[in-house]
Model the fold of this input.
Amino acid sequence: MADIRRRGAVVLGITGLVAPLTLALGAAPAQAASCTTAAGPYQKKVEKFLGRPVDGRQSSADCKAIQSFQNKHGITPNIGYAGPVTWGVMDLMNKQKAVGNNPNRDGRCPVNKGRIACVNLTLQLSWIQDGSRLVYGPVPVRTGRDGYETRTGLKKIYWRDIDHVSSIYDVPMPYSQFFDGGQAFHSVGLSMWNPPGSHGCVNMTTTTAKKYWSLLKKGDDVFVYGRKLGT
Done:
């Protein structure tokens, strides 16, 4: 009976923090938006990122390239404007790429725990290591938005449910591995750079979530550190 009560409490904790339906499944496709003729404050940086001529002037081709990037990653408004949100996503991508194959170069994720899943909120990256040996990753992830931050600290995976569905929103959360209250690793059908973020879970692509499912088990450690921009 005690085990049943405990399981009930766990489920209540989980369902209380899962993302709304539109976030877990992805918002409806954005309607076609007109392209702006205005150059944004990050015009040259955005042009360089997209491989466009870097002249700081908005052309029709520039706008279409920026708009395509915005549509791909769910950035709104999707009018091809080189603003702070669009550049922020690109800047994060650049920083993630610069990490290479040494995500724990700062030594923040413990190397004395054996196998552990690490989450760097600042860079929106996760990986699995065993001691100092990199096992998998780093991979981009999508963590909690402002007001729903993914909580930091050392935790353990306490419950796994490969076909988890929220009983509140009827939202599928495939390959769920819960490590802190209602916060879990799980897959979503969204870009990992889709702003502003999750409702606390660590969102992953299906490929990544499947790999984490195969490499981790109940009782394995999880370490979350840093601070996501905008939280």
